[in-house]
Amino acid sequence: MQDLGVEVLSVSVDSMFVHKMWNDHELSKMVEGGIPYPMLSDQDGSIGKAYGIYDEDAGIETRGRFIIDPDGNVQGYEVLTPPVGRNVSESIRQIKAFQLVRASKGTEATPSGWQPGKAVLKPGPDLVGNVWKVWKTSEAFED
Amino acid sequence: MPKEFKAGCQRPISNNDVNLELDQKEEKEEKLNEGDEQLMSMIKVGKPAPEFTASAYIKGKFAEVSLSEYKGKWVLLCFYPGDFTFV
Questions:
Q1: Residues B34-61: pLDDT tens digits?
Q2: Which of A34, A54, A126, B4 is deepest in the core (most CB within 10 A)?
Q3: For residue B50, is it within any domain?
Q4: How high is the mean pLDDT in each 10-residue block of chain A (143 residues)?
């Protein structure tokens, strides 16, 4: 993420003191040097509510993940229930795609299944009805 | 007697509703409806991310973090159910 110029923020309803304990006693044993990004505390769930991912019944935040661009706009999100973990590679792929589109000032778009290095589309009058010539459905899947 | 349960990724949900008086129940329903409205106004892609400020633990220190400090940068904002859960 740091290589991509992306700042990670994690949020849960735990206090910052519990974050410290979790980092010191468990996470630092998984990640050398411990967690490099800010671990935010949202004890009243207000941030989670603003993002629509707070579970009132359980008093916790579900696995919501939001990609926010340099203008502060949400470009994409994903929300999972607690027992299923995220796919970090997919988040990275999406960020790379959003960065590519932004760098092209909207002149390029990434088709389904796009990965860095794969062909991009240049939307415009010439492409209407002609996507089939430049993009095959097989490209939607991983190699 | 406290009832033991197996530790999983879901936290136990209280059954407090069962003993609620009727008017309290109505109150709760009203609250739920408000919640619905909140869901309706959920995050939209391409629109501004809600601003927030929170206390945080950052590499051995405690600090306040606001989303607005990150203007000009890409941000990956990740919520999760709780510290010391398993996934």
A1: 555 555 457 899 999 999 999 999 999 9
A2: A54
A3: yes
A4: 90 95 94 95 96 95 97 97 93 96 95 92 89 86 75
Name the A residues in 33-92 with CB < 8 Å from any B CB: 34-42, 46-53, 56-77, 82-86, 91
**Containing structural domain, residue B24:** 19-70
Q: Provide the residue ranges of all domains of chain A, joining segments of one domain with +.
A: 1-82
Alpha-carbon gap: B8 to the closest alpha carbon of chain A (Å) = 8
Residue A41 per-residue DSSP state: E
- Between CA A134 and CA A127 the distance in angstroms is 9
ipTM: 0.92
Chain A residues near residue B45 by CB distance under 8 angstroms:
74-77
Q: Which residues of A56-67 are buried (b: 16+ CB within 10 A; e: fewer)?
A: eebebbbbbbbb
Q: How does pLDDT run across B8-43, given as a tens digit for each residue?
A: 766 556 555 555 455 555 555 555 555 555 554 578
The answer to whether B83 contacts A10, with C-beta atoms less than 8 Å apart, is: no
